[in-house]
Amino acid sequence: MTLESIPLDGTNGVRIEILERSDTTLVIRWVEPGKCHYGEQRWRRRSAHTSGTCAVSRRKIRRGDAVFKPAERPAPLNASAMICAELLECVEA
């Protein structure tokens, strides 16, 4: 089973759907009721610059962990969101 088209329940009612995936890039649909909706948003894999929380699992993210973050400019409303790269590897397996 692949991740494509699998909806993920995020924190605070966020709905996330992976549309495309490579090792370094995600294209996702991000729906955050009352705040923002991105139909096809590009996210890139990188090291976390700050500590935070995974938008899907609520797992703690430490600075330096591998994460996916929104990569569009200008910065979107969900620019601070992160998804643990390790989480996506587990979901796909």
Strand-helix topology:
Blueprint: E1 7-9, E2 15-21, E3 25-32, E4 36-47, E5 52-53, E6 60-61, E7 66-70, E8 83-84, H1 85-92
Antiparallel strand pairs: 1-2, 2-3, 3-4, 4-7, 5-6, 7-8
Characterize the structure shown.
The structure is a single chain. The chain is mainly beta and 93 residues long. The protein has one domain (7-92). Helices cover 9% and strands 44% of the residues. The chain contains one helix and eight strands. The strands form two sheets. It has a six-stranded antiparallel beta sheet with strand order 1-2-3-4-7-8. Strands 5-6 form a two-stranded antiparallel sheet. A hairpin with a 3-residue loop joins β2 (15-21) and β3 (25-32). The relative contact order is 0.21. The model has no long low-confidence stretch (mean pLDDT 86).
